[in-house]
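Attaching the record inline, Q. Sequence:
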Amino acid sequence: MAEKTIKCSSGGIALSRIEKGLLTILNCVQFGERLSTHTNEKLLVQILHRSEVRFLKEAMLLELPLTEYGIVVIGDLHGSMLDLLVVLHSIGLPPDVRYLFLGDYIGFGPHQIELIIFILLLKLRWPEHIYMLRGKHETYEVSINDGFRTVCEETFPNTRMFSRFNALFDCMPIAAIISDKIICCHGGISRWMSCRDNIRQIPRPPLIDKMKLLDCCLLADILWANSNAKQSKPFVPSEYDVSYTFNEDALNEVLNALQVTALIRGRSNATNGYVEEFTTKCYAIGTSTDPQNKDVAGAVLGIRRDVACEYHFQPILHRTVNIKGLAFYCRQISAQLEDSFMSDYEAPLGAPTCSRCEIQLKEELQTSTRIISHIEIVDWVLMNAKREVLHDVVYKCLDTNNLPAVARRLVHLFPLYYDLIYSPGGTFRVGLTDGEWTIIQEVYAFGVCPICVDQRVKRAED
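Structure, as predicted:
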């Protein structure tokens, strides 16, 4: 029997419901009660839909001014309400503070639903002070495997809410540029970040069977890329079978192309929650901690600009071992919120009906792939450049039964082959090596179509 569709009562949400919702979540977390016992599904759908509308009014690439009060960037939280509340308690609440979240709100933590709904309500209450980016866990492929689907179905006795959360994720921005100088995202840079418009034009929802191939690659890099200071090549296929890793040379190329000076990203594995991966140019932060390990800290990054227009980055660390408990911080934030509720609220224009309710959550939307993996890239190479692959010197030396090694080689070759086929004499990317440029120029020296490039590719790597 088909599940009954829950719809919003209108296209708006009352301020009183937003503020009560924030306090209700804190109350549930404080006393260890399920959110579903105090909030009906219809209200949660309304919160998700109003948040979707708010996200869709924002660009895929946010461009945020840096006010005199600065901004605080928050990394991976993974369902840890304790880490979030500790940060809010020590730094402050809107409208006194502006926050940019880098994604990974869910995944593994004890309060995944409560945390993301809490941040969404903060955004609905103070939309110009709370900004939320999408992380790799906010995708269908990851969230269905990391336990979030199970959490949704244990909290709500249906499959609807998991689908609705994924519809919300599909609306979220994926990157932000602060003060025209600092790019922020969950994962990292992409060789296809040749200009800002490339990020802006990624469609929503980002379903790979309806997107351009390079848009798919760009999105995967923004959510999944990692840095590796030890690698010699600018970009190397990632061991996660999604995206690439990048070194400092690659970072410099992308920063120049985007006309920015630094990258702030999530995915930090540092024990103090913060690491300056490339001096003054790349900062990685992780905000969630390990309550059982006193050596692991979480961090956020404060950014401000002084009167001389110099930018200052201040990591703010915290630990959740031997501190006052979760109940204490729930009470403290509840009191702080009561004071913050006194600030002005500009209600968005309401509507008699909800536009998001009119969008049916078709099976295609629920299960379509969002993030292109190495598997799809390998398929493309074998379909479009198989002749070149069979003549590739390195490929011919590989054991074809060693599928990971074969896949890594094809994923490595993909950007060059794509340029040779679709950009006669040019390129769609940054961070090319001198050898790659030589190949492109040789192949198109006389304006002819690409021919076998086996020896040329080998020379590019020597």
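The first helix runs from residue 15 to 31. The chain has two domains: 15-367, 374-461.

More tomorrow.
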